Amino acid sequence: MLTQSNNSLGALTISRQIIDQIVEHAFESVEGKLWLANYKGAVSDVLVKIGGFDAIAEKKVEMHDDKLYVKLYVISRLGESIAENCGIVMQRIARDVTEMLELPLDNIEIAVTGTVSKNKNIVKRDLTLDLREMLNNRTISL
Question: How far is CA 51 from CA 29, 90, 105, 121, in A?
Answer without folding.
Answer: 16, 22, 31, 12
